[in-house]
Amino acid sequence: MASLWGGRFEKDMDEIVKKYNASIFFDQRMYNEDIDGSIAHVTMLGKQGIVSNEEKDQIIAGLEEIRKEIVEGKILFTVEDEDIHMGIESRLIDKIGDVGKKLHTSRSRNDQCQVDIRLYLRKEIYEILNSLCYLESVILEKAEKYEDKITVGFTHLQHAQPITIGFVFMAYFQMFKRDIERLTDTLERLNYNPLGACALAGTTMPIDRHLTSELLSFTAPTENAMDTVSDRDYSLEFLSDASISMMHLSRWAEEFAWWNSSEFSYIAIDDSFCTGSSIMPQKKNPDMAELIRGKVGRVYGDLMQLLTVMKGTPLAYNKDFQEDKESLFDAIDTWKATIDIFAKMLDKTEFRMDQIEKQLGKGFLNATDIAEHFAKQGIPFREAHSIVGHMVKACEKKGCDLEDLTDEELLGDISIKSCVNARVSFGGTAPSEVHRQIEVGRQWLNSLER
Question: Which of 277, 386, 418, 432 is catalytic?
Answer without folding.
Answer: 277
